[in-house]
Amino acid sequence: MKLALRELVRKPGRFVTATVILTLIAVLLMFLGGLLDGLLRLSTGAIRAQSADAIVYSESSQSSFLRSRIEADDRAAIEAADGVDEVGGLGVVLLGARVPGNGPRDLANVAVWGYELPPTGVPEPPAPGEAYADELLQADGVEVGQELLIGPARTPITVVGWVTDTAYNGSGGLWADLDTWREALAQNRPDAVLADDVVQALVISGPGDPAEVVAAADAANEGTYALTVDDAISAIPGVDEQSGTFNQILGVTVVIALVVIALFFALLTVERTALYGVLKAIGARSRTIFGGLVVQAAAVTLIASAIAGVLVVVLDLLIPPGSIPLYVSVGRIVLSVVLLLIAAVIGSAFSLRRVLRVDPASALGN
Amino acid sequence: MTQPALQMSDVRKVYSMADNEVVALDHATLTVGADEIIALVGPSGSGKTTLCSIAGGILSATEGSIAVGGEEITDYGDKELTTFRQNKVGFVFQSVNLVPFLNARENLLVVDELGRREGKPARDRADRLLDELGLADRAKNLPSQLSGGQKQRVAIGRALMNEPELVLFDEPTSALDTELGQQVMELIRSEMKSRGTAAIVVTHDERITSYCDRTVHITDGVLNAD
Ligand SMILES: Nc1ncnc2c1ncn2[C@@H]1O[C@H](COP(=O)(O)OP(=O)(O)OP(=O)(O)O)[C@@H](O)[C@H]1O
Ligand SMILES: [Mg+2]
Predict the structure, then answer these.
(1) 8 Å CB contact between A43 and A36
(2) Is B55 in the pocket of ligand 1 (CB under 6 A)?
(3) What tens digit of pLDDT does each residue of A262-280 get?
């Protein structure tokens, strides 16, 4: 191991090519992963932020808020259910908002939410006509105290504070009370007007785990169904497809890293056959030699990952906010490094047979 | 009475290739005393390297039995031979074969690092050996920064790092000029004698034999003592 690390330090030139290629692969891995995280954040933030156990939709809604209708008697039945403690109405409408100071066509995409039970990081519902805005809207020039004019009907909503990571369907959230949301909906989507006691969905909590709460709500009322928050997230149109597609690309990228490492170290092993022969002749075990190889593969991978991590963080700082949905997180970087390390170990394992087959007698070369 | 350093009895080594067989050693019987230095002299291709490799547990014999320092290695497998090489024998190869990216001292220490892992005692031994071999001021030099004779001396130091019972020198002076060759032979003799370690020194050069206790000739794989 000392021998392997010394070689790395004293003959860095030998490892430059592999390090550069792996750095590029690691950047790709972290960048694509960050893009996926960013896209998912933009489409799922509002649901992920729900601190309730489950969300209730109407039967024919296909888990779409815009198609879902919860009538007062549905709500009453679920409120009465054993295993359900807390029930809050929820509704959303996606609209363009005019931001003071922006051009007339420069609309900000907003999701106006009406809520009763505050999601994580969101205060209790504000006064009618007011809303907490998602920080995402800062990129559109939104400021606290501004009056935004929502939709074609220009419903006024005043921004009274910021909340984080509550985007939905790519739009920044505006978190208002149920009446303000219902009004924005009625004025701008005349086809979707809802009566005063109707909401699109319910967020519910209970004493049991989320699956038990779901079961309790489903048992209590016909015509509605509940999903745990996690299921509700994957029910958001496109989320699973996005994750699936990206994860396949990420998987292929990891396999490419594995192949690069396998080829590079196989080549290195061939180059070193004579050296390995001598080492074996003076008493080195194959295990020790192979261990050194794995250590080198892991070290090269770590160096490449470190460089890539820095590059991706810098890239994240350079990209203007709101242009690319890149979301760089420690979790994503660590995950990428772990995947690459696994690829490094598996990749170098392809040289194991060659190391085992090196004959100490090859040291005798005349 | 101490065990002989090497006892080979009726050893045969046959290299089988696709269409023919080469008998590199034929019924070789050789005993090397516990602190004896033997010169092994013979023409090219006569089986000198083969004999050393078998004595040192690098190659397995086709027939016959081999014991080093009383340890019978005839039937050893790869793992046992590795441990045996770690502990019992030292090699100075025909081509020098130092690790190119390690300095002189590290080339000695690599034996310990890959083998017994003694740490401090091994470091002390390495420093003492470098000193004895006149390399104290070259300890930090890479092989590429050493002369041929210095490299050869590092290789000798490496062979002695594991305190072997038997050291096998395969033409240790062939790459050196006469004078340097004799210096190296003198050094080998004094290192061996001061430790009471046995050695086989392979050579073409009859002048070298005067540094050894006894000369054994080999021709076409057949041994005959003087
Ligand atoms: N790996 C091998 N495969 C087949 N034949 C071999 C092999 N190694 C050695 N031989 C043959 O065995 C015989 C003895 O070889 P060996 O290397 O022991 O000779 P040597 O006395 O050391 O010669 P030199 O003085 O040239 O180093 C030679 O005929 C050689 O061609
Ligand atoms: Mg030879």
Answers:
(1) no
(2) no
(3) 999 999 999 999 899 999 9
